[in-house]
Amino acid sequence: MAKKKRVVRNVNWFVDAHYKLKMKRDALLDKVNDVKADITKIEAEALHKFGKEGIEGAKGRVATGYVEERDHVRVSDRRALDAYVKRTGHMELFQNRVSAEAYRELLAQRKKPAGVEIYTSVNFRTRKR
Q: Nearest CA to 117 among 103, 102, 128?
């Protein structure tokens, strides 16, 4: 059995290969964004048509479409919400997230919040020359 010859590539090859792949990705993303815009337009037209005809669903040759209503929760009065949580103890209304910006500001003031840690990700990047 013949051994495969090992290809040794220099650093410049990786830089160029990475950049070329990013350009390929960006071209594909442009196409995806065009399709997303078309989808948004069709959705708006379909919702208008369904409302005009007073229907909630319809069947096409290859798909079924329907109108879906979904409730989304947002904070309209933070002070009132904080007071409610403090009064009732319903802490489950909050999510466990920490602001990276606020954390860094505290570290700059030599204050380290308890129970918080930071991790660092390392990525390879390229840009056009």
A: 103
Classify burial at 50, counting beta carbons within 10 Å of its beta carbon; exposed 0-12, middle 13-18, buried 19 or more: middle
Say whether 92 sits in a helix, a strand or coil.
helix
Whether pLDDT at 126 is above 80:
no
Sorted by sequence, the CB contacts under 8 Å of residue 75 that are 6+ apart come out as 81
Q: Residue 5's pLDDT band (boundaries 50, 70, 90)? A: confident
Q: How is residue 115 written in tokens?
A: 């129970």
Q: What is the DSSP string of 76-113?
A: S-HHHHHHHHHHH--GGGS-----HHHHHHHHHTT---
Taking 90 as the threshold, does the pLDDT of residue 1 lie above it? no
Strand partners, 66: 57
Backbone angles phi, psi at 99, to 5 degrees: -75, 120
C-alpha–C-alpha distance, residues 116 and 98, integer Å: 8
